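Morning run. Coffee first, then this:
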Amino acid sequence: MLRAAALGMFLYGLHDAVSAIALFWGEDPLPWWANLWRLAAGLILTLAAAFVRASLPGGIALAFAGLLGLQAISLHNDTYYYGELLLAPQIGRAAYAVLLVTMAHLGWDSTEQPTS
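And here it is:
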């Protein structure tokens, strides 16, 4: 379960990072800082996926921070793209984030963590 959660986090973060890079060169109504925020949050989530897979302390917290960052910029971007906040896609993204974090938590191997 931990492997699936890490893979889902990696692909979600990679998708947003690549999308942000592509939008830098294309016609996009978003401000430059919104694309930069999306790129940073995607890279944070991609890095966190490796930490989650290795069961490093703080990996889930870093992944949660990346997921929250992507959710926040998604809330901002909806108003630029659609002129309003769309409820269904936001709930879908939030549910996917909760699913990934729950899978990572349930699959976490506490025996691999170093003891103090």
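Residues 2-107 form one domain. Good start to the day.
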